[in-house]
Design brief:
Length: 171
């Protein structure tokens, strides 16, 4: 049986300016690291028998992984659309918003809606393609939103919308 997997649905092309700059920096960094890996690979190849040369095998694998990521970035970066604009009023949920939600128990959580290439669960940044994001888009403050999640259907109330990162309180 083959390992064929059909391609997933296409990702949204939207990204924040910071996310785009981070991907560009990653691409530049990978090219610089690649030069070092190629030097180490050439040195390992010069040692002779490559079949039992752990350094050579490791560097080939490292180079293959770097090249895969570079190819992805070279295809993805030109397709991305940077969203710099914020809505005039922060009354509706759009791309780039920080949305504070209250669940059925009254517990609140703040999520940021970002591009598919920059989501980060540790920071509560969710992809614009995620079910929660799609359910929230174009809703307003105090709206009740029903979302079908993997663990079942849930309701959330939108208790806050903002488009700027909160300032940290000064002492």
């Amino acid at each position: 049986m083959g390992r064929y997997r059909p391609p997933g649905p296409p990702k949204s092309p939207y990204i924040t300016r910071a996310g785009f700059d981070a991907l560009r920096a990653e691409e530049k960094s990978l090219w610089q690291k690649r030069r070092e890996v190629v030097k180490h690979l050439a040195a390992a190849a010069a040692e002779g028998d490559r079949s039992e040369n752990a350094e050579y095998i490791y560097r080939k694998k490292q180079l293959r992984e770097m090249d895969r990521r570079i190819r992805y970035l070279q295809k993805r970066l030109p397709a991305l659309k940077v969203v710099d604009l914020t809505p005039d009023t922060g009354e509706q949920v759009y791309f780039g918003a920080w949305v504070t939600l209250a669940d059925e128990q009254g517990e609140t959580t703040c999520y940021r809606i970002v591009g598919a290439d920059e989501f980060d669960p540790r920071r509560n940044w969710i992809s614009v393609d995620a079910p929660l994001s799609r359910a929230l888009l174009k809703h307003s403050l105090d709206d009740i939103v029903r979302v079908r999640l993997p663990e079942g259907e849930r309701e959330f109330e939108i208790v806050g919308i903002r488009y700027r990162e909160q300032e940290s309180p000064s002492d």
